[in-house]
Amino acid sequence: MKIETYTLNNGMELPKIGLGTFRIRPDDCEKTVSAAIQSGYRLIDTANVYMNERAVGRGVKKSGVPRNEVILASKIWCSEYKYKKAVKAIDATLSRLGTDHLDLLMLHQPFGRVEEAWTAAEEAVKAGKVRMLGVSNFDEADLEKLLGYCTVKPVLDQVECHPYCQRRSLGGYLKERGILLESWYPLGSGNAGLLGEKTVVSLAEKYGKFPVQIVLKWHTEEGYLPIPGTGNPAHAAENADIFDFSFTQEELGTLRALDKNERFFKMKRGVQKYMVFFQRMKYDKQK
Fold first, then answer.
1. Is the dihedral of CA 23, 28, 31, 32 positive or negative?
2. Nearest-CA neighbor of 278 among 10, 79, 128?
3. Dihedral through CA 141, CA 146, CA 149, CA 153, nearest 10?
4. 185 catalytic, yes or no?
5. Residue 194 contacts by C-beta under 8 Å, 6 or more apart in sequence?
6. Phi-psi region at 114: left, alpha or beta (left = phi > 0; alpha = psi -120 to 50)
7. What is the pLDDT of residues 58-88, one digit of tens each?
8. What does the pLDDT average to over 159-171?
9. Contact at 8 Å (CB) between 216 and 204?
């Protein structure tokens, strides 16, 4: 399976699809990561708060594919943003993953001591512990602040994005600044309505694909990078089998018409800003 790539603002490359591991149990995570890499995946996304970094690390080793051919991405949580805690959090993530470097490190949320955490992240880049930096769930205003003081530019912003919530404004903002949009919940959290849309189903029939593959292809046609999550190795392989066809402009237009700015993660920003600091987990207790 051949996966196409994007060239980033630092000249490095990322596959146009990756494997997400949110809400995947350690045992399933290890098996799926290993099988996905063997089938052709090269980008694996996790986070300290997912509590499966160790399983991801085991899966990478179990795959038999050399570490330098796999792009490992992880995120640190807001409760770890204070400078000294961020330094320790980065080292702890490396330890749990069983690697001497992280290919992509992200700040998981735009709340708290972001500048201190970014300073620690930039130092990790200079020390060779991290190759690239990114952010997750940052909007335009959050990025404006970050871009005002950073010396290492983020290569991507990971946000909820799918045909029901196409993030046109943010996508345009990111494109102008050479920052890639990476999509979490790329399938609308597996929403049956989205996958059952007449447009999606008819395109699946035309191209001999599953509706899931049509939705994921929409992401790459828009220049986005989807990271669908699954604990099923067979589904993971199917998800990445999207590079043997392309939509016409008319078909892409019908998919764009599905946009209704509907998010499936609906916590208001003010509440989210307050709640994220209660997410304090004992990351080293993970299996």
1. negative
2. 79
3. -130
4. no
5. 162, 163, 164, 187, 188, 200, 215, 258
6. alpha
7. 999 999 999 999 999 999 999 999 999 999 9
8. 98
9. no
**Statement: residue 270 has pLDDT above 70:** no
Q: Which of 50, 164, 224, 283 is catalytic?
A: 50
Please answer whether residues 179 and 259 qualify as being in contact, where contact means their C-beta atoms are separated by less than 8 angstroms: no
β-strand partners of 132: 104
- pLDDT number for residue 269: 76
CA distance 29 to 275: 27
Enter the tokens of residue 196: 């059952």
Interacting residues of 93 by C-beta distance below 8 A, sequence separation 6+: 48, 53, 74, 76, 102, 105
Which tokens go with 60?
A: 């990478």
Q: Return the DSSP state at 84.
A: H
Closest CA to 142 of 179, 105, 93: 179
Are the CB atoms for 26 and 286 separated by under 8 Å? yes
List of residues 6+ apart from 76 with CB closer than 8 A: 47, 48, 86, 89, 90, 93, 105, 106, 107, 108, 117
CATH of domain 13-191+225-234+261-278: 3.20.20.100
Taking a C-beta distance cutoff of 8 angstroms, is the pair 193, 283 a contact? no
Distance CA 228, CA 266 (A): 19
